[in-house]
Amino acid sequence: MTRPRSTALAKRASSLPVKPEHEVVHETLLTARQSVETSFMDLAAAIDRACQIKVWEHYGAVAPDAYFIQQVDLRPRSWRRLRSIWQAISVLPEAEQAEAREAFAKLANHKASILVPLLRWRGRGATHPDPRRPGPAV
Questions:
Q1: For residues 41 and 101, is the Cβ–Cβ distance under 8 A?
Q2: How many beta carbons lie within 10 A of that of residue 20, not counting itself?
Q3: What is the C-alpha separation between 44 and 116, in angstroms, rounded?
Q4: What is the distance between the alpha carbons of residues 90 and 98, in angstroms, rounded to a whole number?
Q5: Is 105 exposed, middle or buried (0-12, 13-18, 19+ CB in 10 A)?
Q6: Whole-angstrom Cα distance, residue 53 to residue 80?
Q7: Is residue 98 within 8 Å of 90, Cβ to Cβ?
Q8: Whether 55 contacts 85, CB under 8 Å
Q9: What digits encode the pLDDT tens for the residues 73-98?
């Protein structure tokens, strides 16, 4: 007796307005972009936690590099960069961390890693290293 159900569903579906393909593709791009940004910071957090609890020991690897290459398919430069980004954000005041995570996620891995030294320096409450530029770092 599934036929009447499918027919009713088909009738309802045919009565719904059909979106033009460009709108569907645009919405897909926006959703995927947001997903990539969220996934980027989720991956950074997971890598940091994996290092804290030495996950590789549970999978037969003697060092993190072997684990990340063989089990996660991440090269050392990639996972270390992601971990350094996560750790740099973690030293910021709590109130600034969410905004920093969002900003870094939008930058993505390579560009975000460039800002890590600045965040570490700023997280220590340092003032600008150039004496000609007084005041806190921007």
A1: yes
A2: 8
A3: 13
A4: 10
A5: buried
A6: 16
A7: no
A8: no
A9: 889 998 999 899 999 999 999 999 99
